[in-house]
């Protein structure tokens, strides 16, 4: 092996990668990870899987392959980009661009990197379209409830009121001509947790497209999925099969959808919550009231981009059925699944909007 070949091999092994085949024992399903699946039945149909920890979750890239090749390098490069974006977007790194804006943008307008500026513009537009249900300035509220440190607590009235005084994307002034942002009040901060993973997947898609990769599935933390092309295993398919997680039973699915050139985002609080005096408080907060959202158990959105799917999944979870249905004419390419508690203990009911009933194949035993 030449020095250059050794370098490439080392790079591939930098993260854990697997090439799986239906010829291998116990591989009836090529991969199943947190509700996402890509099945294969053809002998010799390989699936290449690459993964890396980033943004407090695991990002994964799935590629059709007969063995490691040039597409592998593109997959690794995509994960490299996720690592770079984490440094820019993280609210947990004091030297990230997001945190630096919080420390300076209330003093004077600050120039923002072009792609990040475009993301902030999208977030502000979503804030308007959802009447405040989606809000990237909810950081002080997240901290008041202890979710930033993953130690949930019920805030007292004074702390909650102070946090609410700092929340609202109307406190952000974006100047497109100068590409600057200005915070109208000291203490305003940005938290992109509800859109950042999806944005990272969209950027990965751009990189893979430029590298000529036609078929792939990407996911971040299993709640954000983006797929392009098809799973080439000899079986006729319309895209990649993706499982929609059950909001109460992590080992089950509500159903499956097929994605091709689309993304799916899911928001829910069943497994990220705390109890106080016998009451359960979920981590998805309504920025308009300062309280945990309780309208539904989960919201799943299919959209053209992963950033939009992630953001609208959070917004729809906060808004509930009526507000979501009223919003959807603004987003004709979006489909929504809302899951509510059923009449029987432990059961659930589904509400499908925007053509989701034509996309989702329900698992009967899940309801």
Keywords, please?
single chain, 367 residues, alpha+beta, T-fold, 3 domains, 3-stranded antiparallel β-sheet, 28% strand, disordered N terminus
Describe this structure in words.
The chain is an alpha+beta fold and 367 residues long. It has three domains: 1-91 and 199-226, no CATH class; 97-183, ApbE-like superfamily (T-fold); 238-367, ApbE-like domains (T-fold, Roll). It has eight helices and 21 strands. The protein has helices spanning 3-14, 70-89, 97-104, 114-129, 139-144, 157-164, 196-210, 306-327, and strands at 17-21, 31-33, 36-38, 46-54, 57-65, 110-111, 172-175, 180-183, 216-220, 224-228, 240-245, 253-259, 262-268, 273-276, 279-282, 285-286, 291-292, 298-303, 335-341, 348-353, 361-362. The strands form six sheets. Strands 1-4-5-9-10-13-18-19-20 form a nine-stranded antiparallel β-sheet, covered by helices on one side. A three-stranded antiparallel β-sheet has the order 6-8-7, with helices on one face. A hairpin with a 6-residue loop joins β19 (335-341) and β20. α2 (70-89) runs antiparallel to α7 (196-210) and α7 (196-210) packs across α8 (306-327). The chain is globular, with a radius of gyration of 21 Å. Mean pLDDT is 86; it is low at 1-44. This is FAD:protein FMN transferase.
């Amino acid at each position: 092996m030449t020095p250059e070949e050794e370098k490439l091999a080392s790079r591939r092994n930098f993260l854990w990668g697997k090439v799986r085949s239906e010829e291998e024992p116990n591989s009836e399903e090529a991969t199943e990870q947190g509700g996402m699946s890509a099945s294969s039945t053809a002998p010799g149909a390989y699936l290449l899987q690459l993964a890396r920890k980033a943004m407090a979750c695991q990002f994964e890239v799935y590629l059709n392959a007969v063995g490691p090749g040039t597409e592998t390098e593109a997959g690794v490069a995509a994960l490299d980009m996720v690592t770079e974006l984490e440094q820019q977007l993280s609210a947990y790194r004091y030297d990230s661009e997001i945190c630096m804006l919080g420390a300076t943008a209330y003093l004077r307008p600050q120039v923002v990197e072009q792609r990040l500026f475009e993301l902030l513009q999208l977030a502000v537009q979503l804030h308007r379209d959802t009447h405040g249900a989606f809000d990237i300035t909810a950081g002080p509220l997240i901290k008041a409830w202890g979710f930033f440190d993953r130690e949930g607590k019920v805030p007292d009235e004074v702390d909650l009121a102070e946090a609410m005084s700092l929340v609202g994307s109307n406190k952000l002034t974006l100047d497109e001509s100068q590409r600057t942002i200005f915070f109208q009040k000291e203490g305003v901060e940005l938290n992109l947790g509800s859109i950042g993973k999806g944005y990272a997947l969209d950027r990965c898609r751009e990189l893979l497209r430029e590298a000529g990769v036609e078929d792939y599935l990407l996911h971040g933390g299993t709640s954000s999925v983006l797929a392009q092309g098809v799973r080439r295993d000899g079986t006729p398919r319309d895209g990649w099969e993706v499982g929609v997680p059950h909001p109460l039973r992590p080992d089950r699915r509500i159903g499956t959808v097929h994605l091709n050139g689309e993304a799916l985002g899911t928001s829910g609080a069943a497994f990220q919550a705390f109890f106080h005096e016998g009451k359960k408080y979920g981590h998805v907060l309504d920025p308009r009231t300062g309280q945990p959202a309780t309208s539904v158990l989960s919201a799943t959105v299919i959209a053209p981009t992963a950033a939009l799917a992630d953001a609208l999944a959070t917004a729809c979870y906060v808004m509930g059925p009526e507000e979501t249905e009223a919003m959807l004419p603004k987003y004709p390419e979006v489909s929504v699944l809302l899951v509510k508690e059923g009449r029987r203990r432990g059961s659930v009911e589904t509400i499908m909007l925007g053509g989701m009933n034509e996309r989702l194949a329900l698992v009967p035993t899940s309801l």
